[in-house]
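Aim 2, interim progress: modelling of the S-adenosyl-L-homocysteine-bound target.
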Amino acid sequence: MTVRRESSKLYENDGRSSLAAVKIITLFPEFFNSPLSTGLLGRAIQAGLFRVDVIDLRDFAENRYRQCDDYPYGGGSGMVLMPGPLFRAISSVREEGTRVLLTSASGTLLTQELVKRFAGERDLCIVCGHYEGVDQRVVERFVDYEVSVGDYVLSGGEFAALAIVDAVARYVPGFMSNSESLVEESFEDGLLEYPQYTRPAEIDGLAAPEVLLSGDHARIRRWREEQRIEKTRRVRPDLYKRYCEGNDKGEER
Ligand code: SAH
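Predicted structure of the complex, ligand included:
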């Protein structure tokens, strides 16, 4: 795990992101075509809210085969991304203040907290690993954060990079049409979100909860809060425990 620099600029920034550019270094640039041109992310990039540059690692390879991977020293299965092309690729995009992230199954687990920290940066460079991973000297020389998107193994860092970009982008002013929704969402205060319903009031014998149709806003707020606590207790005992501890502390004060 690497967390070389600590910062929480987002909080100094009124919760507004200062993100201007994300540079993604990958062996598979075409992977990003559709995700970066579709939906909210596509619209935001088109509107120039921030920039995403996808950089082809092979452009930084040296030999005529554009080789970027090699056998691991010490043996073992699979291939490792060579340090040379990555050193050159990262150096070519790194500016003063660029934070370099490496997607890695053995990195720090990505949380909303970490997403906010990244959103407080101006310039992010995300390196996508592949095969068995990357030469450790890349981490030593360049990487500020090794980031895992969950306790499972993906085939490539591209999937993780997309998750990071999307989660961070939601904090960029103008990305969400309704910035309220950022505050009310899962994880913002340590609880998961309440269940959502929309029309019709009944489908196939299943009715939407009566309270939501009551127009009684105080009751609705109470119901939603109860639902959030109950859901968190049921599916995320780890978060629930932290939530309860937080409340105990609050009462002591
Ligand atoms: N040998 C590695 C797995 C390599 S998977 C290990 O045992 O940890 C290939 C690449 O996919 C990794 O280099 C990393 O960039 C990416 N990757 C896999 N799982 C990931 C996860 N949970 N989070 C972020 N990136 C992941």
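The beta strands are 21-26, 51-56, 69-70, 80-81, 99-109, 123-127, 145-148, 202-203, 206-207. The radius of gyration is 22 Å.
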